């Protein structure tokens, strides 16, 4: 397992075409960023291989605003086993994605909750909706 000292890992999700167009994100100390290519990688396997406990899935082209990032950092530092989501409060990082991803959400969660609902399953365009449905049960 990889060990990262970050308290929260942002996983930017999208197709290989979308991920190639991503610009840099500004991160606070204690945060890190990785990418998940829907076409090549499995979310459950990627999270299982990381030793961190708190993650935020973000669709390519979006990123949580500072207030949301501060809230998630506080939750992660307290090791709270929770999940939540962001919708229209996302800060759009690339206007090219605005129309195609306007309905998507970002989801944050503790690793224990993720695996308690069986991980995710198959990647695809319904990644966020599927996780929201599993977490809500």
Describe the fold and architecture:
With 137 residues, this protein is α/β, with parallel strands linked by helices. It is 31% helix and 24% strand. It has six helices and seven strands. It has helices at 16-20, 43-48, 66-77, 98-101, 111-116, 127-136; strands at residues 8-14, 31-37, 54-59, 62-63, 83-86, 91-92, 106-110. The strands form two sheets. The chain has a five-stranded mixed β-sheet. A two-stranded antiparallel ribbon has the order 4-6. The chain is globular and about 35 Å long. Mean pLDDT is 79; it is low at 88-102.
- What is the approximate shape? globular
Q: Compute the number of strand runs.
A: 7
First CA to last CA: what distance? 29 Å
The number of helical elements comes to 6
**Overall residue-averaged pLDDT value:** 79
* Overall helicity: 25-40%
Strand content: 15-25%
How does the major sheet shape up? 5 strands, mixed
Ranges where pLDDT stays below 50 over 5 or more residues in a row are 88-102
Class by helix and strand content? alpha/beta
Q: Report the order of strands and helices.
A: EHEHEEHEEHEHH
**What's the assembly state of these chains?**
single chain
- The neighbouring-strand order within the major sheet is 2-1-3-7-5
Radius of gyration based on Cα positions: 14 Å
